[in-house]
Design goal:
This protein is mainly β. The chain has a domain at about 145-310: Methylamine Dehydrogenase, Chain H (7 Propeller), CATH 2.130.10.10. Helices cover about 5% and strands about 45% of the residues. It is built from 3 helices and 35 strands. It has a 4-stranded antiparallel β-sheet, with no helix packed on it. The chain has a 4-stranded antiparallel β-sheet with strand order 5-4-3-35, with no helix packed on it. Strands 6-7-8-11 form a 4-stranded antiparallel β-sheet, with no helix packed on it.
Amino acid sequence: MTRSPGFREDHVHARPLLSPFALGTVLLAFAACGTPAAPSASSSSADDADHGGIAGAAELSEPQLHLTTIGGDGGILQLDLLDETVTEIGTIEPADAATGDGRYLFAETAEGLTIVDSGMWTWDHVDHFHYYRAEPRILGTVDGSGPATVATTNSSTTGGTGVFFAGAGVAVLLDTAALSKGEIVERFRLEVEPHDGLVVPVGSFALVTGADGTVSVHTATGAATPGIAAECLAPRGTITTRVGAVIGCHDGALLATVVDGTVEVERIPLPEGAGPVSSFANREGRPTVAGLDESGRILLLDTRERAWTVLDAPAPLRQVSAVDDAHEHLLGLAEDGRVLVIDGASGALLAATDPLLPETLAAAGLATVSLIADDQRAYLNAPAEKALYEIDYADAARIARVFETDGEPAHLALTGR
């Protein structure tokens, strides 16, 4: 693996701990990881494809967790959380925003939507997982203008990836299987009235929002499916769980699933007095998702139970994510730059870090900062501090590791999950 000059002295440094719960020394070993097994060459057989494998990828015995960042200058770096080596993937145009799905990064640039393949992914087979590693690379750019909203599924090798360009009113469905092989293939490109819209893949179909507040179902070729539609005024966020695809609306959420080859769309109304949620976040693939309403309250949506829970936030928050573990942990990024660990049943504050982002708050605010929940750790980028934080949220929000970078890690994704 190539070490990159994008991290100081060509490697990752450990900084003094900033948490009041820290022991005063940096945890240098990643507690959840062991020595990886030797890679086994993947095959291009149909059976391998059914398990998430592609030609040229190695299947390993554990998840290949990495932190992939896009710098303010467009430089893309990838930090291996197991051995702390760093790879430089390349450089793209500076990104205004970026979205990650566990494998790919989708960066909104002046040229359109640039797609980066981290080369790391996990295939969820419900009762077990397959872990893969291939060469990271920049795949190219999807043409479009205006803010781009991306909607993904839990699979990085099958199905579709939705892109909506709000300024132009262009709805695009990408072929995710083609992405996994290094190709950008558009299954359909539709022109609609410009609005803050969504293209949300579900099975072999996609939901496309309209400026009139309707949501229509389209086949992979772009043909509208007659007789299947729903209302969703002011669509404002989407996420896919193990249950189905979620779209936030002004009065609740739509949950789309595929049953016997047909898309079924259910409405889950908001509780009385709760405002709409603008975005959703959770630990990858879990059924419960979290968001903030316009009053700053935490809203949890259990997609299995089709039920909302409303909690008062223990502090003003900018982001919230549902870990959805046995302890019902929630993670929040406070407006003062602290990471909070919250009880998902009561809303009580369980633990908090010190403020981690004073320079970022002073320079540019938290617009590009991401708080990402994993099953044992949380990750946070601090652009102006030129740092990445790994936080053990189950251990009193202890700062487990701090990775220093030369450049500003403007955008962050956890890849390999």
